[in-house]
Amino acid sequence: MDHHQPSLPARLASALLSPWGKVIAALLCLKVFTYTKIAYDQMDADFITSSASPVLSSNNYNANQLMYSNDDQAHNTNNNNNNNPNINVGSKGFVQFNTIPAADVNDYETNSAMQQSIDEIQQLQQKKQQHQQLAQERAAKDNCQIIYILGVEGAIHHGFTPILETLAKSQRDPITGKPYEVTYAPKVLRSALFGLYQEKRDMEDPTLISKVFRELCPDMDGKKTKHVIIEDSSFPSGAIDDPRSYRIHRQASWMTSTMEQVANDELALNHPVNLHKFYELYSQHANVQFILLNRPFLETMASHANDWGEEVVGRSNMIRGFMLILKQFLAHLRREEQSNINGGMRGNRMKTALSTIVCADKIMSKSYESMYEATMARQHILDYLTEFLGWPSSRCPECYNTWKESRKDPAKVLGEKNLALMLNDMKELEGIWPPFDVIGSGLPEQQCSL
Question: What is the mean pLDDT of the chain?
């Protein structure tokens, strides 16, 4: 028997007419249609881009019109598209789509969706850049620390500041192993804060603040070095006829005022610097902390008793007035601490306290029965200063090498008459100074004597 085999076209036709063949054919058609639509969309997008030279954005684009930047672009586009019945270029530089075929509606919706996606991506990128910038600023701030040793004139800054400076220079970053870069009383900072060195700009001038941090905390070098800046100008500073260019000089009127009048005097509040402005401006760029240096009142008064021929009672009123100014500022810092602990206006939680106190009399060996007790107390002072400042080590055998205790007897320096007057002024400071109510006194070495 002759078995006739069907031809190849017949077999293909039979396969396509079978149920599985119909499914395969449908899938192939769908795939071809999809590729065709994608190609069409790309051609349409290329056409729109070539016709409309400005950058498309959600602000100047919609499905009905595109605006050109000038009439020349509109004229060129009109010439390029005069064969397209759906486009009319007006005299004002608008491309007007007269009609949108029904088949093209989905294409424009696709373009709109694509533009929306691009906008969302740009927004995400912008937020990412903002976060990166904030992170960089935060890192720069962590690597820049300004410590202001507050104290009235005569609080023995010249004795304590070298201790703190030596402690700072003994530090090494536990991560990088690099030593801290320590600067004491830098010219650029004193110029910015006090107006010294003929500085004419206001302390709030952003170019002046930028100069300070560019010189003192240069973080653009990528070295991630910890910078510590120490300032210790007293309150008040300088002399009435001081030749240096303080923005506000020491005033003779403070000698004839009461301590309350001095504390409320506008010039006194800004001499040698307005502490509130200083903290507000500089804490945005650095970690700013304050150490109040307290010395017993009689010793404070005796330290400069004969320097400028100032009458002792008037000097006492001036010094006590600045004690009130410092206390008011420390109270402000305490409120700032509480605000930051709860989130704060800036939304940042406080890492460390803003202020602490050091008692000069607790450094002095005469306050102890033995040198062992004095040595232990001095180490305790280093321990809590290290913790307060966020430094890694309180080990500093050389810290007290430059310490020299005053041998002055306040009673002899002041004399019997003035001593009696100063003892009376001391009574007015009871409960006011030292300002334990706004700065705290947790350790025995922080129990300063009046």
Answer: 79
